[in-house]
Amino acid sequence: MAAENTGSMQSHHQAFDVSINVAPQVGSKCYDDDGRLKRTGTVWTASAHIITAVIGSGVLSLAWATAQLGWIAGPTVLFLFSFVTYYTSTLLATCYRSGDPDNGKRNYTYMDAVRSNLGGFQVKVCGAIQYLNLFGVAIGYTIASSISMMAIQKSNCFHTKGDDSPCRVSSNPYMIAFGAIEIIFSQIPDFDQIWWLSIVAAIMSFTYSSIGLGLGIGKVAENGKIRGSMTGVSIGTVTETQKVWRSFQALGAIAFAYSYSLILIEIQDTIKSPPSEHKTMKKATFLSVAVTTVFYMLCGCFGYAAFGDSSPGNLLTGFGFYNPYWLLDIANIAIVVHLVGAYQVFCQPLFAFIEKTAAGWFPNNKFITKEIPVPVPGLKSFKLNLFRLVWRTIFVIITTVLSMLMPFFNDVVGILGAFGFWPLTVYFPVEMYIVQKRIPRWSTRWISLQILSAACLIISIAAAVGSFAGVVSDLKKYQPFKTAA
User: Fold this and answer.
1) Cis amide bond preceding 274, omega within 30
2) How many helices (H) and strands (E) does the chain have?
3) C-alpha–C-alpha distance, residues 75 and 67, integer Å
4) What confidence tens digit (pLDDT) does each residue in 183-216 have?
5) Could you tell me if 316 and 208 are in contact, meaning their C-beta atoms sit under 8 angstroms apart?
6) For position 235, what pLDDT does the model report?
7) Distance (Å, whole) CA 470 – CA 410
8) What DSSP designation does 421 have?
9) Contacts of 63 (CB under 8 A, 6+ apart)
10) Can you list the residues of the chain whose pLDDT is less than 50?
11) CATH of domain 3-16+40-476
């Protein structure tokens, strides 16, 4: 399956689409109803993709986010975000096919779904937000991976030289190493071929989340009490202004921890049918969000219970824990392996979009379209595309350099969560569902959906303001490319 599975520019590039429209094969044993090779995804592979995308580095900032909000608002906000994410994801899943949800025309990407249901200017807005967000996620994951690699070096240093040793470490070599690995993995042609990477990454996410949870429980037992308060970090520890900004930033961090709607349609396009894709996707969404929410509640709450107001911004790298150092090393290695896979899960739709667009604009350019078979001993030959090799390599280099310029994990996470949550997780799914189901304007259902959308918009704006305030504060005392303490 070539990159068609994840990207499509049908309405703009009809000439290119003709080349993949193999109608005579429709309905055969090897092809789906759209003439493409049969999709093979199941509820389990879809769940693996979602869990890989969702239980990312965001889980590690949840103890900090809970600390800003307190014992009442923290868990409540976590649950509300999980409910909204699940509900709007089920709305979005019904928009994979236009018209009839079982037999209608397939939408291969999020942008295709918006084009079919809303059209016009909204398609461009959706594309800009989605692909900017994917680009931002790549930067966020590069930062997070380097922090985990630094934490391994630091924990070994503390173990050898004592907890009070300076142990100065630079993040730059680790970001470069992560970028080099991603250059190699980014040559995997399309989404359908990274299912194994998603399963490995999902296993890794459970590994480090479980270790973080176990250490949190152990710390609570060691303290002999549950730390924290009903209202979170108290005024005095921080100023009133900081309390407001940090609470807003916490909303962004939680929103980021749940964000995967921007690749939901692309994941759904890997699912085989029957049963209908939207039914399988709803099951995968329920399973994934339920598992994720349990983990998030446990990690966020036990992390806060262990450290109270001093909960670190990153549970496994903020050095709330120093021992057992080997267990921290395992957890951080798991984070890095997970982020290698998660980077690909998020970037494949962006890669496919650029390559589809380029092939549509220059259909006769051999540099863009020619596949060169490269023999691989013991396996079938790898199809090398020079344009894919060059542009994806440049993309990874750019994200790596930007990560080195601005390595503020919590702030970047908050901005990404705020920027993408309302439009991609709430607004577009709600508006497309209204069109798809022909819900009458001013009906009870229409008003309820609009109230949900408006409430989430307010949360997104608040989160964005808080996160930008955090970046401004960090930039006052930060020098790029310097060794961190």
Assistant:
1) yes
2) 16, 4
3) 10
4) 888 887 766 666 777 778 778 877 887 887 888 7
5) yes
6) 76
7) 9
8) I
9) 216, 299, 300, 302, 303, 304, 306, 307, 311, 312, 315
10) 1-27, 483-485
11) 1.20.1740
